[in-house]
Design goal:
2 helices; alpha+beta
Length: 69
């Protein structure tokens, strides 16, 4: 990533991977995107959606249950 950033004079780099169609994956094998970013560019990261009260704990418990099964 540093070589990509320096080669194009970017101010930063996003490293991302899209998995499954809901995440906009269009090439169905594993690959990583290195996206040069520049101050003031129009691309915005996903801002996310805040969890409702108690929801984060429920999600964490569901993940722990699957990991432990």
């Amino acid at each position: 990533a540093p070589v990509t950033k320096e080669s194009v004079g970017a101010d930063g780099i996003n490293i991302t991977m899209n998995n499954e169609p809901a995440a906009h994956q269009i090439i169905f094998h594993a690959h990583v995107h290195l996206i040069p970013r520049f101050h003031g560019d129009p691309h915005k990261p996903w801002a996310g959606i805040p969890y409702a009260e108690g929801e984060a704990e429920k999600v964490a418990d569901a993940i722990k249950t699957r990991l432990n099964s």
